[in-house]
Input
Amino acid sequence: MHERARGRGVGRILYWAIRVLLTPPLRLWIRVTFAGREHLPREGAVILAPNHKSLLDPFLLSFAGRRPLRFMAKVELFKGPLGRLLVRLGAFPVHRGEADEEAL
Output
């Protein structure tokens, strides 16, 4: 398991601040429904695997649950300012196209 996945991940204050700020405009801009939301456990491990129909999927997925999520993202996204934000939000890199056991 990647060291970032083991840790606390995102700071709760940052997570909830972003969630509170982004939820109202997203609800006005995008109509989203979450099927099966009641099956998400409130505690313990769970894996959510979106089909990525849009680049917004990971962000929208974070609004489906009632607790902060940690994301795997391709290692290329961790370069530059976006990478620093991803780290602060609890994401961890995965090397696609090869066996990346550390990511799991």
